[in-house]
Design a protein that fits this description.
Elements (H helix, E strand, L loop, with lengths): L8 H22 L6 H14 L3 E5 L2 H11 L7 E5 L5 H8 L3 E5 L10 H7 L4 E5 L10 H11 L4 E3 L7 E3 L5 E3 L6 E5 L13 E5 L2 H11 L3 E3 L2 E2 L10 H12 L1 H19 L5 E2 L7 E2 L5 E5 L4 H10 L29 H9 E4 L7 H18 L2
Helix pairs in contact: 1-8, 2-8, 3-4, 3-7, 9-12, 10-12
The structure holds pyridoxal-5'-phosphate.
Length: about 375
């Protein structure tokens, strides 16, 4: 029997164990647990990898979004446009800062922010736009950035799911996700494409003044120790996590390729099944498949998940309830939204296991059982 998991962190660790263990041991030996040399080195190495001027590490991807919004100096009630079809963290920070989340629908094929919906949602109170590079695919940034520029609205890329991926502009120029907008945020949660062994996150920007502000806010609003210029928070990347991330960054491209190979395998296995729509790959995006998310029809999804579970194959729904329908959003008017594509996707998406360590036998076992279950259930 196979031991199939949504994400197999153990097998990945075993392959790089000597390097990782040595890096952790080195932090223990130096006892530089907070703000040690590994934190700075990792920030520099990631900046180099991405081709961005500044990487500001912090404690997690949610903090990165929060600090990013704080740095824009918004006032309570200012509007922030984002999608509802995302992880709650993207929207939660907007609410936490007493800003007004404004939800727009996504495209049914890419699962990312719909441009026309953004255009319609812009008001004089719109003070930020947060596109999410969902499941590893870039949002369509070129027209979005043009629209934002026209209205002078800052854009924050939520790049928690698409680090290592890239976007190609119409002039042929290709840049890494997280380097295109006013700033970007990411998460190093263990299951993310570049994950550490605990919590971690970062912000990226090419703007020197903004970088300084982000650094200050993440550090209690101080630039000089014990002199606090503004209200900030305490959000740091641990030295041990930074040391781990330095090792894993060297493998990121190979991890992205491994994920794409899994997606290729699944795409091919499902291409003739009329009840499965495999993920669309937008021509402008180098998709890094944080998730492999299908659309299914004519089958009861609960039964499908149960049948897969009986074969010891986990499946997940990302996400079972869109943000605007969460109880948390009631006081922000979430229930007033009508987002037909988001609602449609909520009912038909399902994600299969994807990670960097699969064998072909395991993929075959998953794909065969999934096709069979669908065929059996199809009405
Ligand atoms: C994971 C994730 C976050 C939050 O990251 P944490 O490190 O868990 O705080 C934010 N946005 C998206 C889209 C995510 O997938």
């Amino acid at each position: 029997m196979y031991n199939i998991q949504m994400v197999d962190l153990k097998r990945q660790y075993e392959k790089i164990k000597p390097e990782i263990d040595a890096a952790i041991q080195n932090v223990l030996n130096t006892t530089a647990f907070i703000g040690g040399p590994d934190v700075k080195a990792f920030g520099d190495e990631l900046a180099q990898y991405l081709g961005v001027k500044h990487v500001i590490p912090c404690a997690n991807g949610t903090d990165a979004l929060q600090i990013g919004l704080m740095a824009l100096g918004l006032k309570p009630g200012d509007e922030v446009i984002t999608t509802s079809f995302t992880y709650m963290a993207t929207v939660e920070v907007v609410a936490l800062l007493r800003l007004q989340p404004v939800f727009v629908d996504v495209d049914a094929d890419t699962f990312t922010m719909n441009l026309e919906a953004v255009r319609k949602a812009i008001t004089p109170k719109t003070k930020a736009i947060i596109p999410v590079h969902l499941y590893g695919q870039s949002a369509n940034m070129e027209p979005l950035l043009a629209l934002a520029k026209e209205h002078n609205i800052p854009v924050i890329e939520d790049n928690a799911q698409a680090i290592g991926g890239s976007y190609t502009f119409s002039d042929g120029k290709t840049v890494k996700n997280g380097t295109m907008a006013t700033m970007a945020t990411t998460s190093f949660f263990p299951s993310k494409n570049l994950g550490c062994y605990g919590d971690g996150g970062a912000m990226f920007t090419n703007d020197d003044a903004l970088a300084e502000k982000l650094r200050m806010i993440a550090n209690h609003g101080q630039k000089v120790r014990y002199y606090h210029e503004m209200v900030g928070c305490n959000s740091r990347l641990d030295s041990i996590q930074a040391a781990i991330l330095r090792i894993k960054l060297k493998h990121l491209d190979e991890y992205c390729s491994a994920r794409r190979a899994v997606a290729d395998y699944y795409d091919n296995a499902f291409k003739d099944n009329p009840n499965i729509t495999t993920p669309y790959r937008a021509p402008y995006s180098y998709h890094v498949f944080h998730q492999y998310t299908l659309k299914i029809k004519n089958v009861n999804r609960d039964e499908l998940q149960k049948m897969m579970a009986d074969k010891k194959i986990p499946t997940m729904l990302y996400y079972p309830v869109p943000c605007h329908k969460q109880n948390m959003m009631k006081e922000f008017g979430g229930a007033d939204y009508h987002l037909p594509v988001t609602d449609m996707l909520q009912d038909c998406v399902i994600s299969l296991p994807i990670h960097t360590e699969f064998t072909t036998d395991e993929l075959s076992y998953i794909a065969t059982n999934f096709n069979e279950a669908i065929n059996q259930l199809a009405k």
